[in-house]
Design a protein that fits this description.
The structure holds two protein chains of two kinds. Helix content of chain A is 37%, strand content 13%. Chain A is built from 16 helices and eleven strands. Chain A has an eleven-stranded mixed sheet with strand order 1-3-2-4-6-5-10-11-9-7-8, sandwiched between helices. Chain A starts with 7 loop residues before the first helix and ends in a 14-residue tail after the last helix. The relative contact order of chain A is 0.14. By secondary structure, chain B is mainly α. Chain B has a domain of 38 residues. Chain B contains three helices and two strands, in the order αααββ. A two-stranded antiparallel ribbon of chain B has the order 1-2. In chain B, helix 1 crosses helix 2. Chain B is flat and about 55 Å long. The chains are: A alpha/beta, B mainly alpha.
Protein backbone atom coordinates (compact mmCIF):
# COMPACT_ATOMS: atom_id res chain seq x y z
CA UNK A 1 0.00 0.00 0.00
CA UNK A 2 1.39 3.42 -0.93
CA UNK A 3 1.09 5.57 2.15
CA UNK A 4 4.23 7.70 2.21
CA UNK A 5 2.78 10.80 0.64
CA UNK A 6 -0.81 10.67 1.89
CA UNK A 7 -2.30 13.48 3.96
CA UNK A 8 -3.27 13.11 7.62
CA UNK A 9 -6.99 13.00 6.80
CA UNK A 10 -6.42 10.23 4.21
CA UNK A 11 -4.37 8.16 6.66
CA UNK A 12 -6.97 8.74 9.39
CA UNK A 13 -9.65 7.38 7.09
CA UNK A 14 -7.62 4.24 6.40
CA UNK A 15 -7.18 3.75 10.15
CA UNK A 16 -10.92 4.07 10.68
CA UNK A 17 -11.79 1.76 7.80
CA UNK A 18 -9.42 -0.83 9.28
CA UNK A 19 -7.46 -0.87 6.02
CA UNK A 20 -4.39 -0.49 8.17
CA UNK A 21 -3.55 -0.37 11.87
CA UNK A 22 -1.51 2.28 13.64
CA UNK A 23 1.14 -0.35 14.41
CA UNK A 24 1.43 -1.15 10.68
CA UNK A 25 1.55 2.53 9.79
CA UNK A 26 4.24 3.13 12.41
CA UNK A 27 6.34 0.20 11.18
CA UNK A 28 5.89 1.43 7.60
CA UNK A 29 7.33 4.89 8.37
CA UNK A 30 10.06 3.49 10.67
CA UNK A 31 11.18 1.29 7.77
CA UNK A 32 11.33 4.30 5.46
CA UNK A 33 13.38 6.21 8.03
CA UNK A 34 15.82 3.27 8.20
CA UNK A 35 16.07 3.12 4.43
CA UNK A 36 16.35 6.81 3.56
CA UNK A 37 17.65 8.59 6.67
CA UNK A 38 20.75 8.23 8.83
CA UNK A 39 24.06 10.03 8.38
CA UNK A 40 24.56 8.66 4.88
CA UNK A 41 20.96 9.51 3.96
CA UNK A 42 18.98 12.69 4.59
CA UNK A 43 20.23 13.06 8.18
CA UNK A 44 16.84 14.47 9.12
CA UNK A 45 16.45 12.47 12.35
CA UNK A 46 18.84 12.72 15.32
CA UNK A 47 16.96 10.18 17.41
CA UNK A 48 14.48 7.51 16.28
CA UNK A 49 12.15 6.30 19.03
CA UNK A 50 11.18 2.94 17.58
CA UNK A 51 10.36 1.13 20.80
CA UNK A 52 8.28 3.95 22.31
CA UNK A 53 6.51 4.49 18.98
CA UNK A 54 5.41 0.88 18.66
CA UNK A 55 4.12 0.89 22.24
CA UNK A 56 2.18 4.12 21.58
CA UNK A 57 0.78 2.67 18.34
CA UNK A 58 -0.55 -0.40 20.16
CA UNK A 59 -2.42 1.90 22.52
CA UNK A 60 -3.73 3.99 19.63
CA UNK A 61 -5.08 0.86 17.93
CA UNK A 62 -7.02 -0.02 21.07
CA UNK A 63 -8.63 3.41 21.11
CA UNK A 64 -9.39 3.31 17.39
CA UNK A 65 -11.09 -0.07 17.88
CA UNK A 66 -13.26 1.08 20.77
CA UNK A 67 -13.92 4.79 20.29
CA UNK A 68 -15.78 5.86 17.15
CA UNK A 69 -15.07 9.51 18.07
CA UNK A 70 -11.29 9.11 18.30
CA UNK A 71 -9.39 12.19 17.15
CA UNK A 72 -8.25 12.47 13.53
CA UNK A 73 -4.68 12.51 14.86
CA UNK A 74 -5.06 9.26 16.83
CA UNK A 75 -2.57 6.71 15.55
CA UNK A 76 -0.93 9.13 13.10
CA UNK A 77 2.91 9.17 13.27
CA UNK A 78 4.78 12.47 13.59
CA UNK A 79 8.26 13.78 14.32
CA UNK A 80 9.32 16.63 16.61
CA UNK A 81 12.12 19.08 16.01
CA UNK A 82 14.79 18.31 18.59
CA UNK A 83 14.07 21.62 20.30
CA UNK A 84 10.87 20.24 21.88
CA UNK A 85 11.49 18.62 25.26
CA UNK A 86 10.41 14.99 25.29
CA UNK A 87 10.18 13.23 28.64
CA UNK A 88 12.73 10.44 28.88
CA UNK A 89 13.88 10.95 25.28
CA UNK A 90 17.19 12.66 24.50
CA UNK A 91 16.71 16.30 23.42
CA UNK A 92 19.83 17.97 22.03
CA UNK A 93 18.81 21.23 20.30
CA UNK A 94 21.50 19.95 17.86
CA UNK A 95 24.12 21.17 20.33
CA UNK A 96 27.03 19.35 21.96
CA UNK A 97 26.19 21.15 25.20
CA UNK A 98 22.97 19.08 25.38
CA UNK A 99 24.37 15.95 23.73
CA UNK A 100 23.25 13.67 26.56
CA UNK A 101 20.38 15.77 27.89
CA UNK A 102 17.20 13.85 28.74
CA UNK A 103 14.26 16.12 29.72
CA UNK A 104 12.10 15.31 32.71
CA UNK A 105 8.87 16.61 31.14
CA UNK A 106 7.19 16.96 27.74
CA UNK A 107 6.77 20.26 25.94
CA UNK A 108 3.08 21.24 25.94
CA UNK A 109 2.85 20.71 22.16
CA UNK A 110 4.20 17.17 22.54
CA UNK A 111 1.93 16.50 25.53
CA UNK A 112 -1.09 17.60 23.45
CA UNK A 113 -0.19 15.21 20.63
CA UNK A 114 0.35 12.46 23.21
CA UNK A 115 -3.17 13.09 24.49
CA UNK A 116 -4.45 12.63 20.92
CA UNK A 117 -2.42 9.39 20.78
CA UNK A 118 -0.33 10.56 17.84
CA UNK A 119 2.83 8.50 17.48
CA UNK A 120 6.22 10.17 18.01
CA UNK A 121 8.71 8.52 15.61
CA UNK A 122 11.70 10.60 16.64
CA UNK A 123 13.46 13.93 16.96
CA UNK A 124 14.58 15.91 13.94
CA UNK A 125 17.75 17.81 13.15
CA UNK A 126 17.95 21.61 13.28
CA UNK A 127 20.49 24.39 13.32
CA UNK A 128 22.15 24.47 16.73
CA UNK A 129 19.58 25.98 19.14
CA UNK A 130 17.65 26.96 15.97
CA UNK A 131 20.35 29.52 15.13
CA UNK A 132 20.56 29.29 11.38
CA UNK A 133 18.70 28.85 8.12
CA UNK A 134 20.24 25.71 6.61
CA UNK A 135 20.78 23.09 9.39
CA UNK A 136 24.51 23.52 8.69
CA UNK A 137 25.14 24.87 12.20
CA UNK A 138 23.89 21.56 13.71
CA UNK A 139 26.57 19.80 15.75
CA UNK A 140 25.41 16.59 14.03
CA UNK A 141 25.92 17.71 10.43
CA UNK A 142 23.46 19.19 7.94
CA UNK A 143 20.24 17.56 6.80
CA UNK A 144 19.82 17.26 3.04
CA UNK A 145 17.13 18.53 0.71
CA UNK A 146 15.23 15.52 -0.70
CA UNK A 147 14.82 17.31 -4.07
CA UNK A 148 18.62 17.44 -4.45
CA UNK A 149 20.72 15.99 -1.65
CA UNK A 150 23.63 18.33 -2.42
CA UNK A 151 21.43 21.26 -1.33
CA UNK A 152 20.28 22.65 2.01
CA UNK A 153 16.76 21.85 3.23
CA UNK A 154 16.67 25.32 4.81
CA UNK A 155 16.39 25.85 8.52
CA UNK A 156 16.32 25.98 11.30
CA UNK A 157 13.54 23.33 11.09
CA UNK A 158 15.34 21.65 8.17
CA UNK A 159 15.16 18.12 9.58
CA UNK A 160 11.39 18.37 10.06
CA UNK A 161 10.96 19.77 6.53
CA UNK A 162 13.22 17.18 4.85
CA UNK A 163 11.54 14.29 6.70
CA UNK A 164 8.03 15.35 5.65
CA UNK A 165 9.15 16.13 2.07
CA UNK A 166 10.69 12.65 1.64
CA UNK A 167 7.62 10.88 3.06
CA UNK A 168 9.40 9.67 6.19
CA UNK A 169 6.61 11.02 8.40
CA UNK A 170 3.19 12.59 7.68
CA UNK A 171 3.76 15.76 9.72
CA UNK A 172 6.27 17.30 12.10
CA UNK A 173 6.45 19.80 14.93
CA UNK A 174 8.71 22.74 14.14
CA UNK A 175 9.40 26.20 15.54
CA UNK A 176 9.80 29.70 14.14
CA UNK A 177 11.61 32.74 15.39
CA UNK A 178 12.22 34.40 12.04
CA UNK A 179 11.46 32.06 9.15
CA UNK A 180 12.46 28.70 10.62
CA UNK A 181 9.22 27.01 9.51
CA UNK A 182 8.31 28.94 6.35
CA UNK A 183 11.80 28.99 4.81
CA UNK A 184 12.55 25.22 5.03
CA UNK A 185 8.93 24.39 4.06
CA UNK A 186 9.43 26.53 0.96
CA UNK A 187 12.83 25.06 0.05
CA UNK A 188 11.55 21.46 0.53
CA UNK A 189 8.26 21.96 -1.33
CA UNK A 190 5.84 21.32 1.54
CA UNK A 191 3.48 23.31 3.77
CA UNK A 192 4.39 25.13 6.97
CA UNK A 193 2.38 27.06 9.54
CA UNK A 194 3.90 29.75 11.73
CA UNK A 195 1.25 30.67 14.32
CA UNK A 196 0.40 34.03 15.82
CA UNK A 197 2.78 34.65 18.73
CA UNK A 198 1.05 33.25 21.82
CA UNK A 199 -1.34 30.96 19.91
CA UNK A 200 0.75 27.84 20.67
CA UNK A 201 2.50 27.30 23.99
CA UNK A 202 6.28 27.60 24.10
CA UNK A 203 6.48 25.58 27.31
CA UNK A 204 9.22 22.97 27.01
CA UNK A 205 10.56 24.37 23.75
CA UNK A 206 14.20 25.29 24.34
CA UNK A 207 14.15 29.09 24.21
CA UNK A 208 15.83 31.16 21.53
CA UNK A 209 14.17 34.58 21.19
CA UNK A 210 11.37 34.57 23.73
CA UNK A 211 9.54 37.55 22.24
CA UNK A 212 9.22 35.75 18.87
CA UNK A 213 9.37 31.99 19.46
CA UNK A 214 6.33 30.29 17.90
CA UNK A 215 5.94 26.51 17.72
CA UNK A 216 4.02 25.29 14.66
CA UNK A 217 3.79 22.47 12.15
CA UNK A 218 5.06 21.24 8.80
CA UNK A 219 2.76 18.96 6.75
CA UNK A 220 1.60 18.02 3.23
CA UNK A 221 -1.44 20.25 2.88
CA UNK A 222 -3.09 23.31 4.37
CA UNK A 223 -5.93 21.09 5.59
CA UNK A 224 -3.37 19.05 7.55
CA UNK A 225 -1.92 22.22 9.04
CA UNK A 226 -5.41 23.36 10.07
CA UNK A 227 -6.06 19.97 11.72
CA UNK A 228 -2.87 20.24 13.78
CA UNK A 229 -3.52 23.91 14.58
CA UNK A 230 -6.82 23.09 16.27
CA UNK A 231 -5.03 20.68 18.59
CA UNK A 232 -1.89 22.69 19.31
CA UNK A 233 -3.47 26.12 19.88
CA UNK A 234 -4.68 27.40 23.20
CA UNK A 235 -3.92 28.85 26.58
CA UNK A 236 -1.31 27.13 28.72
CA UNK A 237 -0.85 28.12 32.38
CA UNK A 238 2.83 27.23 31.90
CA UNK A 239 3.30 29.92 29.22
CA UNK A 240 1.87 33.29 30.26
CA UNK A 241 2.08 34.70 26.73
CA UNK A 242 -0.48 32.19 25.42
CA UNK A 243 -3.90 33.61 24.63
CA UNK A 244 -7.29 32.65 26.05
CA UNK A 245 -8.89 33.62 22.73
CA UNK A 246 -11.29 31.07 21.30
CA UNK A 247 -9.84 28.50 18.91
CA UNK A 248 -11.90 28.37 15.71
CA UNK A 249 -12.65 25.02 14.04
CA UNK A 250 -9.98 25.84 11.49
CA UNK A 251 -10.38 22.67 9.41
CA UNK A 252 -14.19 22.62 9.38
CA UNK A 253 -14.31 26.32 8.45
CA UNK A 254 -12.15 25.91 5.32
CA UNK A 255 -13.88 26.93 2.11
CA UNK A 256 -12.94 26.39 -1.49
CA UNK A 257 -13.53 29.85 -2.90
CA UNK A 258 -12.22 33.27 -2.05
CA UNK A 259 -15.23 35.42 -2.89
CA UNK A 260 -15.17 38.61 -0.83
CA UNK A 261 -11.58 38.05 0.30
CA UNK A 262 -9.20 40.96 -0.15
CA UNK A 263 -5.52 40.14 -0.58
CA UNK A 264 -2.61 42.59 -0.57
CA UNK A 265 0.60 42.09 -2.51
CA UNK A 266 3.34 44.11 -0.80
CA UNK A 267 5.57 45.54 -3.49
CA UNK A 268 8.63 45.67 -1.20
CA UNK A 269 8.65 41.85 -1.04
CA UNK A 270 9.88 41.64 -4.64
CA UNK A 271 13.41 42.29 -3.46
CA UNK A 272 16.59 42.93 -5.45
CA UNK A 273 18.35 39.63 -6.06
CA UNK A 274 15.11 37.65 -6.29
CA UNK A 275 15.24 34.93 -8.95
CA UNK A 276 13.06 35.98 -11.92
CA UNK A 277 11.62 32.46 -12.09
CA UNK A 278 10.61 32.62 -8.43
CA UNK A 279 8.92 35.96 -9.09
CA UNK A 280 7.09 34.42 -12.06
CA UNK A 281 5.76 31.55 -9.90
CA UNK A 282 4.42 34.07 -7.35
CA UNK A 283 2.61 36.05 -10.05
CA UNK A 284 1.10 32.80 -11.38
CA UNK A 285 -0.09 31.91 -7.88
CA UNK A 286 -1.65 35.36 -7.48
CA UNK A 287 -3.51 34.83 -10.76
CA UNK A 288 -4.94 31.59 -9.31
CA UNK A 289 -6.13 33.45 -6.20
CA UNK A 290 -7.95 35.91 -8.49
CA UNK A 291 -9.53 32.95 -10.31
CA UNK A 292 -10.84 31.80 -6.94
CA UNK A 293 -12.62 35.12 -6.53
CA UNK A 294 -10.18 37.07 -4.38
CA UNK A 295 -9.73 40.78 -4.91
CA UNK A 296 -5.99 41.45 -5.17
CA UNK A 297 -4.47 44.89 -4.59
CA UNK A 298 -0.91 46.17 -4.40
CA UNK A 299 0.08 47.47 -0.98
CA UNK A 300 3.22 49.06 0.41
CA UNK A 301 5.21 48.19 3.56
CA UNK A 302 8.15 50.59 3.33
CA UNK A 303 9.85 49.37 6.54
CA UNK A 304 10.21 45.80 5.23
CA UNK A 305 13.94 46.15 4.57
CA UNK A 306 14.57 47.01 8.22
CA UNK A 307 12.95 43.83 9.54
CA UNK A 308 16.11 41.74 9.31
CA UNK A 309 18.14 44.50 10.97
CA UNK A 310 15.80 44.64 13.95
CA UNK A 311 15.98 40.86 14.11
CA UNK A 312 19.77 40.88 13.93
CA UNK A 313 19.82 42.85 17.20
CA UNK A 314 16.79 41.59 19.14
CA UNK A 315 17.46 37.92 18.46
CA UNK A 316 21.10 37.75 19.60
CA UNK A 317 20.22 39.90 22.61
CA UNK A 318 17.52 37.50 23.78
CA UNK A 319 19.73 34.52 22.87
CA UNK A 320 22.59 35.79 25.00
CA UNK A 321 20.18 35.92 27.91
CA UNK A 322 18.37 32.61 27.23
CA UNK A 323 21.57 30.64 26.66
CA UNK A 324 23.09 31.86 29.91
CA UNK A 325 21.39 28.89 31.60
CA UNK A 326 23.71 26.44 29.84
CA UNK A 327 26.54 26.78 32.30
CA UNK A 328 27.66 23.21 32.97
CA UNK A 329 26.27 23.24 36.50
CA UNK A 330 22.91 21.48 36.75
CA UNK A 331 22.55 19.58 33.47
CA UNK A 332 24.13 19.26 30.05
CA UNK A 333 27.83 19.19 29.20
CA UNK A 334 30.34 19.91 31.98
CA UNK A 335 34.02 20.29 31.09
CA UNK A 336 36.38 17.70 32.50
CA UNK A 337 39.36 19.95 33.18
CA UNK A 338 37.93 22.70 35.34
CA UNK A 339 40.07 23.79 38.27
CA UNK A 340 37.48 26.03 39.86
CA UNK A 341 33.88 27.17 39.42
CA UNK A 342 34.76 29.88 36.88
CA UNK A 343 36.45 27.27 34.72
CA UNK A 344 33.28 25.18 34.70
CA UNK A 345 31.34 28.08 33.18
CA UNK A 346 33.96 29.36 30.76
CA UNK A 347 35.17 26.01 29.46
CA UNK A 348 31.87 24.12 29.42
CA UNK A 349 30.43 26.90 27.27
CA UNK A 350 33.53 27.07 25.07
CA UNK A 351 33.42 23.29 24.48
CA UNK A 352 29.64 22.96 24.27
CA UNK A 353 28.56 25.77 21.92
CA UNK A 354 29.27 25.86 18.19
CA UNK A 355 30.47 28.95 16.31
CA UNK A 356 27.03 30.31 15.38
CA UNK A 357 25.72 30.08 18.95
CA UNK A 358 28.87 31.80 20.20
CA UNK A 359 28.59 34.51 17.56
CA UNK A 360 25.00 35.25 18.54
CA UNK A 361 25.70 35.16 22.28
CA UNK A 362 28.60 37.59 21.82
CA UNK A 363 26.62 39.90 19.52
CA UNK A 364 23.77 39.95 22.01
CA UNK A 365 25.99 40.53 25.00
CA UNK A 366 27.51 43.48 23.14
CA UNK A 367 24.12 44.95 22.14
CA UNK A 368 22.92 44.76 25.73
CA UNK A 369 26.11 45.92 27.42
CA UNK A 370 26.48 49.23 29.26
CA UNK A 371 26.80 52.12 26.84
CA UNK A 372 25.39 50.24 23.84
CA UNK A 373 21.89 49.28 25.01
CA UNK A 374 20.25 52.50 23.77
CA UNK A 375 22.01 52.49 20.43
CA UNK A 376 21.18 48.87 19.61
CA UNK A 377 18.49 47.06 21.60
CA UNK A 378 16.33 50.07 22.44
CA UNK A 379 16.61 51.45 18.91
CA UNK A 380 15.65 48.05 17.46
CA UNK A 381 12.60 47.76 19.73
CA UNK A 382 11.46 51.22 18.62
CA UNK A 383 11.73 50.28 14.95
CA UNK A 384 9.93 47.06 15.83
CA UNK A 385 6.96 49.11 17.05
CA UNK A 386 6.90 50.94 13.72
CA UNK A 387 6.92 47.58 11.89
CA UNK A 388 3.96 46.38 13.99
CA UNK A 389 2.07 49.65 13.31
CA UNK A 390 2.76 49.37 9.58
CA UNK A 391 1.29 45.86 9.42
CA UNK A 392 -1.72 46.90 11.54
CA UNK A 393 -2.43 49.70 9.11
CA UNK A 394 -2.27 47.48 6.04
CA UNK A 395 -4.54 44.89 7.68
CA UNK A 396 -7.21 47.61 7.96
CA UNK A 397 -7.38 47.32 4.18
CA UNK A 398 -6.76 43.64 3.38
CA UNK A 399 -7.48 40.22 4.94
CA UNK A 400 -4.05 38.80 4.17
CA UNK A 401 -0.82 39.43 2.28
CA UNK A 402 0.77 37.14 -0.29
CA UNK A 403 4.35 37.15 -1.54
CA UNK A 404 7.29 34.77 -1.96
CA UNK A 405 8.45 32.80 1.08
CA UNK A 406 12.08 32.92 -0.03
CA UNK A 407 13.57 34.97 -2.90
CA UNK A 408 15.65 32.02 -4.16
CA UNK A 409 15.46 28.24 -4.37
CA UNK A 410 17.67 26.05 -2.14
CA UNK A 411 21.41 26.67 -2.33
CA UNK A 412 24.23 24.13 -2.28
CA UNK A 413 25.35 22.86 1.12
CA UNK A 414 28.45 24.83 2.10
CA UNK A 415 27.51 28.15 0.44
CA UNK A 416 26.49 29.74 3.72
CA UNK A 417 29.63 28.74 5.56
CA UNK A 418 31.28 31.57 7.49
CA UNK A 419 28.78 34.15 6.25
CA UNK A 420 27.53 35.78 9.45
CA UNK A 421 24.69 37.47 7.52
CA UNK A 422 23.39 34.40 5.66
CA UNK A 423 20.28 33.85 7.76
CA UNK A 424 19.33 37.50 7.96
CA UNK A 425 19.24 37.65 4.15
CA UNK A 426 17.81 34.15 3.50
CA UNK A 427 14.88 34.90 5.82
CA UNK A 428 14.36 38.55 4.93
CA UNK A 429 10.81 37.93 3.64
CA UNK A 430 9.79 35.98 6.77
CA UNK A 431 11.34 38.08 9.50
CA UNK A 432 9.09 41.20 9.44
CA UNK A 433 5.94 39.12 10.12
CA UNK A 434 7.79 37.29 12.91
CA UNK A 435 8.81 40.55 14.56
CA UNK A 436 5.12 41.56 14.51
CA UNK A 437 3.86 38.21 15.87
CA UNK A 438 1.75 37.48 12.78
CA UNK A 439 0.48 34.08 11.58
CA UNK A 440 1.75 32.93 8.20
CA UNK A 441 2.00 29.95 5.87
CA UNK A 442 4.36 28.78 3.21
CA UNK A 443 2.81 26.49 0.59
CA UNK A 444 4.30 25.02 -2.59
CA UNK A 445 3.49 26.99 -5.78
CA UNK A 446 5.72 25.44 -8.43
CA UNK A 447 9.37 25.05 -9.31
CA UNK A 448 12.26 27.19 -10.50
CA UNK A 449 15.67 26.32 -11.89
CA UNK A 450 18.52 26.53 -9.42
CA UNK A 451 20.84 29.45 -10.19
CA UNK A 452 23.90 27.21 -10.48
CA UNK A 453 22.59 23.97 -12.01
CA UNK A 454 20.06 22.60 -14.46
CA UNK A 455 17.71 21.31 -11.81
CA UNK A 456 14.19 22.29 -10.77
CA UNK A 457 13.70 23.12 -7.08
CA UNK A 458 10.48 24.01 -5.17
CA UNK A 459 9.18 27.56 -4.73
CA UNK A 460 6.95 28.60 -1.82
CA UNK A 461 4.07 31.07 -1.66
CA UNK A 462 3.87 32.95 1.61
CA UNK A 463 0.50 34.00 3.06
CA UNK A 464 0.58 36.39 6.02
CA UNK A 465 -2.44 37.28 8.16
CA UNK A 466 -3.22 39.75 10.95
CA UNK A 467 -2.64 38.62 14.54
CA UNK A 468 -5.04 35.73 15.40
CA UNK A 469 -5.98 35.62 11.68
CA UNK A 470 -5.03 31.96 11.25
CA UNK A 471 -8.36 31.24 9.56
CA UNK A 472 -7.66 33.88 6.89
CA UNK A 473 -4.35 32.29 5.87
CA UNK A 474 -5.66 28.72 6.08
CA UNK A 475 -8.66 29.63 3.88
CA UNK A 476 -6.50 31.20 1.20
CA UNK A 477 -3.99 28.33 1.22
CA UNK A 478 -6.71 25.69 1.20
CA UNK A 479 -8.64 27.31 -1.65
CA UNK A 480 -5.42 27.51 -3.67
CA UNK A 481 -4.78 23.81 -3.09
CA UNK A 482 -8.28 22.88 -4.33
CA UNK A 483 -7.35 24.07 -7.84
CA UNK A 484 -3.60 23.30 -7.91
CA UNK A 485 -1.59 20.17 -7.21
CA UNK A 486 1.87 21.52 -6.36
CA UNK A 487 1.43 20.17 -2.83
CA UNK A 488 0.94 16.67 -4.27
CA UNK A 489 4.38 16.62 -5.93
CA UNK A 490 7.12 14.73 -4.20
CA UNK A 491 10.80 14.16 -4.86
CA UNK A 492 12.10 11.18 -6.84
CA UNK A 493 14.19 8.56 -5.09
CA UNK A 494 11.94 7.98 -2.07
CA UNK A 495 9.67 5.30 -3.49
CA UNK A 496 8.00 2.34 -1.83
CA UNK A 497 10.27 -0.20 -0.17
CA UNK B 1 31.77 49.89 13.46
CA UNK B 2 34.95 47.89 13.86
CA UNK B 3 35.52 46.10 17.14
CA UNK B 4 38.90 45.78 18.82
CA UNK B 5 40.28 42.49 20.13
CA UNK B 6 40.06 43.93 23.61
CA UNK B 7 36.33 44.61 23.21
CA UNK B 8 35.74 41.04 22.01
CA UNK B 9 37.62 39.69 25.05
CA UNK B 10 35.50 41.88 27.32
CA UNK B 11 32.22 40.65 25.78
CA UNK B 12 33.42 37.03 25.91
CA UNK B 13 34.14 37.56 29.60
CA UNK B 14 30.63 38.92 30.14
CA UNK B 15 29.19 35.94 28.26
CA UNK B 16 31.41 33.48 30.15
CA UNK B 17 32.92 31.92 27.04
CA UNK B 18 36.65 31.22 26.97
CA UNK B 19 38.10 32.22 23.58
CA UNK B 20 41.60 31.60 22.26
CA UNK B 21 43.44 34.26 20.22
CA UNK B 22 42.39 32.96 16.83
CA UNK B 23 38.75 32.84 17.94
CA UNK B 24 39.01 36.41 19.22
CA UNK B 25 40.20 37.45 15.77
CA UNK B 26 37.50 35.41 13.99
CA UNK B 27 34.66 36.85 16.09
CA UNK B 28 36.16 40.36 15.94
CA UNK B 29 35.76 40.27 12.16
CA UNK B 30 32.37 38.56 12.13
CA UNK B 31 30.80 40.74 14.82
CA UNK B 32 32.08 43.81 13.02
CA UNK B 33 30.25 42.64 9.87
CA UNK B 34 27.02 42.20 11.85
CA UNK B 35 27.35 45.60 13.58
CA UNK B 36 28.04 47.28 10.25
CA UNK B 37 24.94 45.56 8.82
CA UNK B 38 22.62 46.72 11.61
CA UNK B 39 23.98 50.29 11.62
CA UNK B 40 21.52 51.07 8.78
CA UNK B 41 18.81 51.19 11.46
CA UNK B 42 20.06 54.65 12.39
CA UNK B 43 18.32 55.88 9.23
CA UNK B 44 14.87 55.14 10.68
CA UNK B 45 13.37 58.13 12.48
CA UNK B 46 12.21 56.90 15.90
CA UNK B 47 11.80 60.30 17.53
CA UNK B 48 8.96 60.02 20.07
CA UNK B 49 8.40 56.28 19.37
CA UNK B 50 7.99 54.06 22.40
CA UNK B 51 9.80 50.71 22.27
CA UNK B 52 7.78 47.48 22.08
CA UNK B 53 8.71 44.17 23.64
CA UNK B 54 5.38 42.31 23.73
CA UNK B 55 3.70 42.39 20.35
CA UNK B 56 0.24 41.00 21.14
CA UNK B 57 -0.45 43.63 23.78
CA UNK B 58 -0.42 41.47 26.91
CA UNK B 59 0.34 43.20 30.18
CA UNK B 60 1.07 41.84 33.63
CA UNK B 61 -0.30 38.31 33.47
CA UNK B 62 -0.79 37.41 37.12
CA UNK B 63 -1.50 34.20 39.02
CA UNK B 64 -1.83 33.14 42.63
CA UNK B 65 1.54 32.47 44.22
CA UNK B 66 0.92 28.96 45.53
CA UNK B 67 3.86 26.81 46.49
CA UNK B 68 3.67 23.23 45.26
CA UNK B 69 5.95 20.24 45.33
CA UNK B 70 7.80 19.45 42.12
CA UNK B 71 7.00 16.08 40.63
CA UNK B 72 10.39 16.13 38.93
CA UNK B 73 12.70 16.24 41.98
CA UNK B 74 14.33 12.85 41.55
CA UNK B 75 14.61 13.09 37.77
CA UNK B 76 16.29 16.49 38.05
CA UNK B 77 18.77 15.22 40.61
CA UNK B 78 19.49 12.21 38.41
CA UNK B 79 20.56 14.51 35.57
CA UNK B 80 23.20 16.42 37.60
CA UNK B 81 26.60 16.19 35.88
CA UNK B 82 28.22 15.39 39.27
CA UNK B 83 26.57 14.67 42.60
CA UNK B 84 27.16 13.48 46.10
CA UNK B 85 24.02 11.83 47.46
CA UNK B 86 21.25 14.28 46.53
CA UNK B 87 23.58 17.29 46.40
CA UNK B 88 24.84 18.98 43.23
CA UNK B 89 28.64 18.88 43.21
CA UNK B 90 30.72 21.73 41.80
CA UNK B 91 34.37 22.81 41.92
CA UNK B 92 35.65 25.09 44.67
CA UNK B 93 34.67 28.72 44.28
CA UNK B 94 37.99 30.20 45.41
Amino acid sequence: MELAFLEISELAEKLRNKEISSVELTKYFLKRIKEYDGESGLNSFLTVTEEEALAQALEADKILASDPHASVLTGIPYAAKDLFSTKGIRTTASSKILDKFVPVFDATAVAKLNTEKSILLGKTNLDEFAHGSSTETSAYGPSKNPWDVTRIPGGSSGGSAAAVAAGLVPFALATETGGSIRQPASLCGICGWKPTYGRVSRFGVIAMTSSNDSPGTIARSVKDLAITAEILSGHDPKDSTTSVKEIPNYAANLRSDLKGVKIGVPKEYFVPGMQPEVEARIHEAIAKLKELGAQVVEVSLPLTKYGSLVYAIVTPAEISSNLARFDGIRYGHRTEDAKDLSDIYDQSREEGFGDEAKRRILTGAYALSAGYYDAYYLKAQKVRRLLVDEFNEVFQKVDALVCASVPNVAQKIGNAKDNPLFGYIADQLNIPASMAGLPALSIPCGFAKAEDADIEMPVGLQIIGPQWGEQNVFNIGYAYQTITDWHKKYPKGFGEI
Amino acid sequence: MILTAEEVRKIAGLARIKLNDSEVEKFRKELSVVLEYVSELEKVDTEGVEEISQVTGLENVLREDHAKLSEYRDAIIASFPERKDDFLKIKSIL
